[in-house]
Design brief:
Family: Belongs to the glycosyltransferase 2 family.
Number of domains: 2
Keywords: Glycosyltransferase, Transferase
Distance between the termini: 58 Å
Domain Glycosyltransferase 2-like: 11-182
Oligomer: single chain
InterPro entries: Glyco_trans_2-like, Nucleotide-diphossugar_trans
Number of strands: 12
Largest sheet: 9 strands, mixed
CATH class of the largest domain: Alpha Beta
CATH topology of the largest domain: Spore Coat Polysaccharide Biosynthesis Protein SpsA, Chain A
Number of helices: 11
CATH architecture of the largest domain: Alpha-Beta Complex
Helix content: 40-55%
Shape: globular
GO molecular function: glycosyltransferase activity
Strand content: 15-25%
Length: 328
């Protein structure tokens, strides 16, 4: 059970998807968790989208950002506000493309954290929309800074056994203790979007805290299929993986080149086979920008200089050749 004195603030980030945000707000309002309030951070949406929010929500429940500074920037506005304005003990950061199937999800996760003082953040399982198929349950970060994901809970439990102090959690529906934020700080805003949750999890592990998946509850994550993901998704994931490895993990250049080669073979080849040439160019651009250390919001997702693509193809060819040799 949760003490009634424990204050929980849910924070929804909105950017030009006010209808989805309002639907999620209604689901959050039905949660049974006591002492629960909800804030919406609008990340400088278009005027008509802001007006939709204001027509549904009181103004004191909306934090308006003057710029679209990305996921971390918007969430940090909400987190800073609730920590400053009230005695919030937990924050629940949420994407607005979620569906919460039960009214006890938040209460279950917070109760679990209350019962386990050594655990500082947790997430419910993430499921595919209206399905029993798990889309994400957790993962771990190895000694080289490589991120490994588990797509079923049994696999994640094995990862917990082998890498208990290297767990990372998806930031889609993450419940975080106040004391953790006060100890390690807010989300890193240099990524703009994607990989900030992996970065945060890595810092959690370095600080000696523990992260867990609460498997008896779940939410549906309505993210697009791989073939429908926009150009910027491919760019930021390619770039931010390298930024994370370079800046946070201080990985060797040899390890970073392995990561580049892996993305070229696993991600780029698939895009080219399906004829998604603009998205393939965005991957090339992301790799290039990650290698040169470009951070923040990107304005250009087009192909980098031709020499970069040529070097990328050479690296991909070399990596494939090395794998054939090892298998031989």
């Amino acid at each position: 059970m949760i003490s009634k004195q424990k204050m929980v603030t849910s924070i929804i980030l909105n950017y030009n998807k006010s209808e989805e945000t309002i639907k999620l707000y209604r689901q959050l309002a039905a949660q049974t968790c006591p002492s629960h309030e909800i804030l919406v951070v609008d990340n400088c949406s278009d005027i008509d989208q802001q007006e939709k929010l204001l027509a549904f929500l009181p103004e004191n429940k909306i934090i308006k950002s003057k710029i679209n500074g990305g996921f971390s920037y918007g969430m940090n506005l909400g987190i800073s506000s609730c920590l400053r304005e009230n005695q919030c003990d937990y924050v629940w950061i949420l994407n607005n493309d979620l569906k919460i199937p039960g009214d006890d999800v938040l209460e279950e996760v917070v109760s679990y954290l209350e019962e386990h003082p050594d655990i500082a953040m947790a997430t419910p399982l993430l499921y595919e929309p209206d399905s029993d198929e798990v889309s994400f349950s957790g993962g771990y970060i190895d000694n080289n800074g490589w991120m490994h994901s588990a797509y079923d809970y049994a696999q994640f439990k094995e990862m917990e056994k082998t890498h208990p102090n290297r767990i990372w959690l998806d930031g889609t529906a993450l419940v975080i203790k106040r004391e953790l934020i006060e100890h390690i700080g807010l989300l890193d805003e240099t990524y703009f979007m994607y990989w900030e949750d992996i970065d945060f999890s890595y810092r959690v592990n370095l600080s000696g805290y523990t992260a867990k998946v609460v498997a008896n509850v779940g939410v549906y994550h309505c993210s697009p299929q791989w073939s429908e993901r926009p150009i910027y998704w491919h760019y930021y994931n390619a770039r931010n993986e390298l930024l994370f490895m370079r800046n946070r993990c201080h990985a060797s250049w040899k390890t970073i080149m392995w990561a580049v080669e892996r993305r070229l073979n696993d991600n780029l080849d698939q895009l080219l086979r399906h004829g998604f040439y603009d998205r393939a160019d965005a991957v090339y651009r992301g790799i290039w920008d990650g290698l040169i250390g470009k951070t923040g919001k990107a304005e250009d997702f087009s192909a980098p200089p031709r020499i970069v693509k040529m070097l990328g193809r050479l690296l991909s060819w070399y990596g494939a050749r090395q794998r054939v040799r090892r298998q031989g």
